Amino acid sequence: MTAFLRLVRRDLLLAFRQGADAALVVVFFALAVLLFPFGVGPEPNMLARIGAGILWVMALLAALLSLERLFLADHEDGSLDLLALAPLPLELVVLAKVAAHWLTTGLPLMLTAPFLALLLGMDAAAIPALVPALLLGTPTLSLIGAIGAALTLGARRGGVLLPLLILPLYVPVLVFGVAAVDAAAAGLTPRPHLLILGGLLLGALPLAAWASAAALRQALD
Description:
The chain is mainly α and 221 residues long.
């Protein structure tokens, strides 16, 4: 556990030293959401109706921005080879890097989303469901993204292949995340949708760690 936390701390320090990458994700998220009223019109009822979908799709795309370099920087400077030889299992190395990725991307997106929801005119009753939905959904996005980042490591056009590989796998998270917010806006309980998001997260934890570690071993051979 100490080695795991040290690796998370290391990745966080590297991310903060390159603060532009983390800031770029939040800026892209905010600007993309704010551009929607110019495209679909400023009609409040329409924006409130599609607000949950806008926020989730933009959060999904914003999370993609930093996924390509999840393992790439360590692979280029040789750190990944040392991590693979360390006593810490490679599966836990993957989870540590995913945790750092979520703390620098998913968490800021989750904290920014309620303010953008208010700007879109979403029902105030839906915002308390938006935060836990993102809290459960964004770690799953990072875990699934780690699989794609590991599979495309060293590929010539990895940045192009990565979205093609993982976007179809993002669909269940997107569907149930939007459904939870829409249910709360309609006066219904979002609990079933949040439970499914929680189940997706619990399933993604071991599967993503195992699949990503297997892909990394293949890339390092």
